[in-house]
């Protein structure tokens, strides 16, 4: 205890000495006020004379903002969860490399490297993805407690699940990408669509999901862990579980290219990695997993510890390269196949659930075969993983020269594909239901 | 044509807050009569009209149409046609639509409505304007549309609220004749509200002269003129000279001497009971009007104008002669 | 002696200068930023030349076509819903002796001042699938009603939010109907609803159409409410989602923006056409004035029940917001678990900066709007300047520009422009003010029109006849006489600017320059921020309402002193 304080003091002194010129540090972040306020307070205390100017924008808007304003950049730091966003910024040369001086931080959290291999951004906290639910809702509707992604695809969950669109939420994008990487393209999409058949809604903000779970408008939400932890911290009757196919991904911070206050930006990174900075992450309103292992000693009981928990260690290795290549394809596929075709997908799913129930009472091989056909129709994908990651596909979304088609054309093709398949699936399921009854 | 009905008003009192607008009004209007409420503005005549139409509620008293008390009836069940001062023609409807309105509200068959609209418009001579909008008509035409709209429903009685006030002087004369002729043809009990004694005198059978919420006198125009019951009526209808004892004439205490200018004549100053200097002289065409100062008051004397007749100059002292039968003594 | 010229025929160089100034302002802060963004709609992605292929793509994409019809349906049904809410309130409070009319009119304006996000959260907690009403219904009768589901939910929310536009315009029109118009109909046997339908409503039609067309356009262009209910298949949300998620270079978002602007302009044009020659001018000479009708005790009781029910409905979001701001935890229960003042304590420190900024920005924006709106109305109605109508349409078109398009446009157009010390122009808080002013200009413009139309031109002619110059006539006669109307415009612009988010979100550069709506947005993205967010929302509503009340009192005072002079 004393030792860690002393250590913190030394680190803070070191940081303070090295970057005494603090001044105004401007940061664009997707993190909420609950997260940024305590850290701002602690930072301004640790580095006297500095002020942290926080501009809150969602991840995508933040990236767009830096892009739009790069000619006359006024921002020092970009600070957000999704590594993808940093990859995008790196690719557009909007970040400046920086190697932190802080020591005692492992190479990896779970199986994910904490820092960017090229040194453009630095991980300061880890987050995993999972399922949160409202206990009152679940109890009132007599619903089960989920453990795995696949659970959410079961009949009782129909119309009770919420997710945010991956195109709108960096964290959901990672969740979907994790499922795709963990289970493979075809099976991963099958799982995703089976879960999606039970969706109540697809929100356009990450926070829309915990918001609705917290207020009891939906039962379950697919979220990043800290949403659930900080909701618990705020007193909401919610629970959270990590499924076995998940990944721990660092939340990152990076110095923006041509930062007006580069020294201040670096001081902030050093602070985040210091013991004081890391301990701030344990606050009830923040609740992220620190990357400095010794900080967990101060964590509340049953706080997940990725450096100790068996479950969180053997996780899959997230392939950020692959994720970046098919980034937009995955987003657009999700939107066209699921977000904007939710009604037909749900209709087909509902029929399938009824068919399953009928089959459970009275088996019927012919109907079972129809159910399988219907499931295959739902799971069908308009493109393969190779096509999704191909440069031509990327060009369709970014306006490159060698593109397969205009984005709007692709979208129409994919949504028409999904609409037709879902309608066919519903027809099969209904046919099976007639046989099974 | 429907039978003409009588209107009986008994003991009506009406106040708005602390303003006592109608005070103990009793009035009996005969079937088929064209009756005027005459008085200065603010005397309560329009309120009394609105009371009959159902737009005002009396605190006390009753209004009977054809012997039936209408107090409980809302305006739309009274069958009392009212022509508003502003005409209140609806600008979003054609003339025909305006006239048809009341018939449509009575759910009459389409053919019947068309027939009666045409009839009403013909009656006021506007048959060819049926498809115009009110804004496209002149003031006089608008007024006739308002009348047609009202008589189309064949009301029990017809109420006219200052129907001529929005017309120019020349129009007024011809429109009032038309109104009278129409009323006679329909044989409809009608009430005509006006502040203009000439309008009331020329076309109405009887007049109620009102002042400050009370009826001061009821009678035919001639009765009111010849035998006013009080000073207000005397002075409100036509010109009247009003003198008291201070003018040096014999007037019983508590009364005043009243006479019309044309009943007096100029006489030599010597031996006259009333004499004084001429204060002004006006040439009115058929008559010459002199102002004569008698004691503390000024009176008017009208003398017939004859070509070449001698005129008195301002400042000359003249006597005023008055036949005794023209002297009227009224309570002060 | 020269022939007297009516003011309308005089060409004054001063007026031309003012017109040029306004035109420059509109071009600089509306046309240029919007064009900077919208031209993308006419280029192929990746920097091609001019093309219309994107519009073809729009027509060939089921999603967009579906969204288009959904938006049409929702906008039209919202007008119906808003009318149902507004008609009884407007009719009862203007044509009858109804105690509390002024209060009803004031409260009826409140729904327009609904801070973003918190309002929808509060509505979900009251009317959502597991909100108060449905939990109770389920408990008592075992049924749930989908108030907030899908398109119907959007209609429900929007009708409540925007009905004040109809209420305000319709009330003004109803007040101008002469009493004898209704009495004549009663006299001819009409009463009750038929009387309203056949006489009062047609006569108030110009006011109603003005309000209804505003509602239609606002709903068509509104992003926030549908998205908060997770309805994405509508035009404006599609534009917003594409621009903010697929990318700033994606043409389809701007194609939709172009469609939005076109729909808005067409709607305004149609409503203007429909009202041509239908200005059933106001009280007539010799008319009965504006006296109100009396209600019988039974009617009166019924009216109060109806008014209270409607007010409860339209103020439900505010009631929910208030509850939420005092709630500890409110989750899957009819009412919060317990109450606390802690949320207010938490935001009190933070919000003083936000409150100051909000009042400053909205106040400045509304002031700009009133000046511009008044000037444009004067130029259009009282001068014969060529192309003066263009100013009118230009300012009116601002209604249709989605906030996010304007925000991005400002960044595009002004971020590269540097001040001497290197700060980009777009980073100055004054840009937020200008964006708000442009967004809310149509409201002030409308109010100025209405005020100036009721002002007889003879009053100005009299002043000029007595030797006042044009500018002095404007200053001494026109401005004092239309102050009331301008103030109404100020209040509408101010109140709605105070809760504007979409453009603000793009333009806020740092926290110390942020208005309340931004602070609220930031708070509402966190679990622990819900209560404080609601508290800040309540504070915002109170502040805006207080400012409105103050200006209303000031207007009343000005009105009274003027009446005494006359």
Description:
- Chain A is built from 18 helices and 13 strands.
- Chain A is an alpha/beta fold.
- Chain A is globular, with a radius of gyration of 23 Å.
- Chain B is of the alpha+beta class and 332 residues long.
- Chain B has 2 domains: 229 residues, Rossmann fold, CATH 3.40.50.300; 89 residues, Beta Barrel (OB fold (Dihydrolipoamide Acetyltransferase, E2P)).
- Chain B has 8 helices and 18 strands.
- In chain B, helix 2 crosses helix 3, helix 2 runs parallel beside helix 4 and helix 3 crosses helix 4.
- The radius of gyration of chain B is 24 Å and the shape is elongated.
- The relative contact order of chain B is 0.12.
- Chain C is 72% helix and 0% strand.
- Chain C starts with 12 loop residues before the first helix and ends with a helix.
- Chain C has 2 domains: 266 residues, MetI-like (MetI-like fold, Orthogonal Bundle); 280 residues, MetI-like (MetI-like fold, Orthogonal Bundle).
- Chains in contact: A-C, B-C.
Keywords:
heterotrimer; B: 332 residues; alpha+beta; Rossmann fold; OB fold (Dihydrolipoamide Acetyltransferase, E2P); 2 domains; six-stranded mixed beta sheet; five-stranded antiparallel beta sheet; 8 helices; 18 strands; 25% helix; 32% strand; elongated; C: 566 residues; mainly alpha; MetI-like fold; 23 helices; globular; disordered N terminus
According to DSSP, the number of beta strands of chain B is: 18
The CATH topology of the largest domain in chain B is given as Rossmann fold
Count of separate structural domains of chain C = 2
Full CATH superfamily name of the largest domain in chain B: P-loop containing nucleotide triphosphate hydrolases
Ranges of chain C with pLDDT <50 over ≥5 residues? 1-10, 282-290
Percentage of residues in strands of chain B: 25-35%
What is the secondary structure topology, with strand pairs?
The complex is a heterotrimer of chains A (437), B (332) and C (566).
Chain A: H1 2-18, E1 23-29, H2 33-46, E2 50-56, H3 59-68, E3 77-80, H4 83-91, E4 95-96, E5 108-109, E6 112-113, E7 122-134, H5 135-140, E8 161-164, H6 170-183, H7 185-196, E9 199-203, H8 208-214, E10 220-224, H9 225-233, E11 238-241, E12 248-256, H10 262-273, H11 275-280, E13 289-290, H12 320-325, H13 327-337, H14 342-361, H15 365-379, H16 385-389, H17 391-398, H18 407-436
Parallel strand pairs in A: 1-2, 1-3, 8-9, 8-10
Antiparallel strand pairs in A: 3-12, 4-12, 5-6, 7-10, 7-11, 7-12, 7-13
Chain B: E1 7-16, E2 19-29, E3 34-38, H1 45-53, E4 60-65, E5 68-69, E6 80-83, H2 95-105, H3 110-123, H4 139-151, E7 157-161, H5 169-186, E8 189-194, H6 197-203, E9 206-211, E10 214-219, H7 221-226, H8 231-236, E11 241-243, E12 255-259, E13 265-267, E14 274-283, E15 287-294, E16 297-304, E17 317-321, E18 328-331
Parallel strand pairs in B: 3-8, 3-9, 6-7, 7-8
Antiparallel strand pairs in B: 1-2, 1-4, 4-5, 9-10, 11-12, 12-18, 13-17, 14-15, 14-17, 15-16
Helix pairs in contact in B: 2-3, 2-4, 3-4
Chain C: H1 13-38, H2 53-60, H3 62-95, H4 101-107, H5 118-127, H6 132-141, H7 150-175, H8 179-187, H9 192-203, H10 205-221, H11 224-228, H12 235-246, H13 251-274, H14 297-326, H15 342-382, H16 388-397, H17 403-414, H18 429-453, H19 457-465, H20 470-498, H21 502-507, H22 516-523, H23 530-565
